[in-house]
Amino acid sequence: MKVKRQHYVPRFYLNYFADNKNQVWVYDKEIRKAFQTSIINIACEGYFYDDVNIDKVYDTDQYIEKYYAEIETETAPIYSELISQLLDVNYTPQQEVKENLSRFLVSQIERTNRFREESYQFTLDMYKEFKEKGFTKEQLKQFGFEDENYDKKQVHLESILAGIEMDDTLMEILSDHIWMFFKNETTQCFYTSDHPVVKKSNLNNDLISNDGYGSPGIEIAFPLTPKLILLMFDREYFYEQSERDCHVLNMNSIENVDYYNSMQAAFSQRQIYSYSNKFELINEMGL
Prior knowledge:
Blueprint lengths: L4 E3 L3 H4 L8 E6 L4 E6 L5 E3 L5 H7 L4 H24 L8 H16 L2 H20 L4 H6 L9 H25 L1 E7 L7 E2 L4 E4 L16 E8 L2 E6 L13 E5 L2 H14 L3 E4 L5 H6 L2
Parallel strand pairs: 5-10
Antiparallel strand pairs: 1-4, 2-3, 2-11, 5-9, 6-11, 7-8, 8-9
């Protein structure tokens, strides 16, 4: 039986931000309202990854959905064990934690609705740039640009398929960063969102954005639970933090929690998720 409701943020992950009835608080930026709902209703769309032509090539129904389901099945028990270990005061993460989580993080980056929008916009921008430089239709076709009437879903799915072949490279990039785990000791929960792996460039300039996952000065955040967060830092720019690689630390300041929550709010496509109905920060941000 085909899966109709396809999640681009896994339910096993969202469940860590839900109550014992699998309910989570949602802030919707489009309608500017907060409400509570089941995790089955969020971060999903009907047949989000389905494509008949892709299924024919790979000779299976719902190839991309099954690909992500396999990653989720592998990750869920590893993730659960990690959360339990991080709550143990005597636990020190080992290098294998990076290896175990990197594939999941890469898949989470590329599978969301926001990534779909970004992939589509990038393709349009590249097409227009080449066209403005005088490239002929034949030359544009050589670069894979047929015309400017692109289907947003098709661009995204092709990007996912291309990414599957290159995932090892991004996994290595993430693994090479400094990883630090923080326990939230404040009364404010960490938010997550419909695009939970977020990043911030600390070396912006007019010529280079430096906002890639392996860029100098990049800072990446992924909330694990309302009380735990994984932070990844470029090893060169944040060299002073190298000795804290794979360490578990405490976060005692609400200002720091708000900083990472603001990243979730800013980079979410539409919705922010929280264990509690405390979204004052989003209102302050004017989103």
